[in-house]
Design brief:
By secondary structure, the protein is an alpha/beta fold. It is built from four helices and 15 strands.
Length: 221
Amino acid sequence: MPWCTGEVPESMNRMVFGPEHECYVEKTARISGALEIGRYTYISENAVMIAHSPIRIGSFSSIGANFHCVTHEQHPTQFPTTFPLSDILGLGTSHGGVIGLDRNKRVTQDLSVNIGTDVWIGDSASVFGGVTIGHGCVIGAKSLINRDCETYGIYAGTPGKLIRKRFPDRIIEQLLDLKWWDWSLAEIHVNLNFFETDLTTFQGDLCELIARPMKFVSVGR
């Protein structure tokens, strides 16, 4: 879909934060709270993201349908009941029925979620509060992520486990140094060769693939 040229699907809300900083959220998604979304990231249909503590998503990330991330959702298990008595019965408990919130929904424990840049999360995946997902990760469909995920790892399962790395470590190090996600749209457009290179077999230096800055040209939106 050529979103960068202004053609956004009718099902999407476009959020514009300034030049070259916009993102896309399906209208059926339920999002609230302290949510930060990087440029050109999209969130698919029926996602639920409730950020009592911040949920931060980097740029160029792809969030699949039915994604579930509520920062404060885990019920305490050390008391006689896990039921939220304060919410349902108005009982004056010291907590709000979930870990990290008091009965007035004020945050008592920071459980921020940090999802990096160029992350692909498959359909119906869930992420627990307090988790960090590194740049370039792939999260398999229906996975449950309850611990941190290292950069450019492929994770799947319940709970999610590292299946393999996307690239050799030397390529990952170069990608993290390049930070292509910070490039301007003009720089991205003139570097098609870079974006079409199979990095699982590439043996050289990534800088060899990059167009020189003086070759950058203005690209119309």
